[in-house]
Amino acid sequence: MFYSADTRDHGLPRDPFKAIVAPRPIGWIGTNGADGSRNLSPYSFFNAVSDNPKIVMFSSGRGNDSPRNAEETGVFTSSFVSRNLLGQMNASSVIVPYGVDEFEIAGLEHVPGRMVDAPYVKDAYAVLECKVIQVVRPVALDGTDADAIVVFGQVVGIHIDEAIIRDGRLDMSIAQPMGRMGYMDYTEASTVFELMRPPRP
Under 8 Å CB-to-CB from 143, ≥6 apart: which residues? Predict the structure, then answer.
């Protein structure tokens, strides 16, 4: 099948776009509001974009609390979403008014960042502390605003629970990272195999 993306004439019950771009890692973004309120929300439009320096990004619909807080305060955290925290992650995705604390809703203990003024999930196996370096509001081909705001953050601090370290490496069979598929589907990425790149000619 083929369809023009702008018409969305795919003939399927649900748009398949996000099912194609999968699995997507989940950034569990922790922020403080300028008013002092705490916020915690998961975003599957999240990824690493640079290793030197270490930069990650998350993207959200315009008007959501996380990008607003990150832009206003200049910082955010991203907590690792493992299988054992899946229920709490889902609970924190609830849509609530600005200023409502999703840490409390999800029954999670928060910890303040060491290098940034933003909270993170205490029980997360890993956490990235980030300082905002750029906020982008994408524009579509026709010049209209996309319903998205992209926040880029440089990682300034990294927390790792030593329980997931084996032989000097992070063991994903222990960490059991969760990924977002299409629709309301998730996957656990704990089946790991090594594949080396071909040598240069």
Answer: none
What architecture (CATH level 2) is domain 17-188?
A: Roll (2.30)
DSSP state of 139: B
Contact assessment for residue 45 and residue 59, using Cβ atoms and an 8 Å cutoff: yes
* Cross-strand partners of 128: 78, 158
Where in the chain are the domains? 17-188
> 108 - beta bridge partners?
none
pLDDT in tens for each of the 201 residues of the chain? Answer: 999 888 778 889 988 999 999 999 999 999 999 999 999 999 999 999 999 999 999 999 988 999 999 999 999 999 999 999 999 999 999 999 999 999 999 999 999 999 999 999 999 999 999 999 999 999 999 999 999 999 999 999 999 999 999 999 999 999 999 999 999 999 998 788 889 999 998
- Other Cβ atoms within 10 Å of 133 Cβ, number: 13
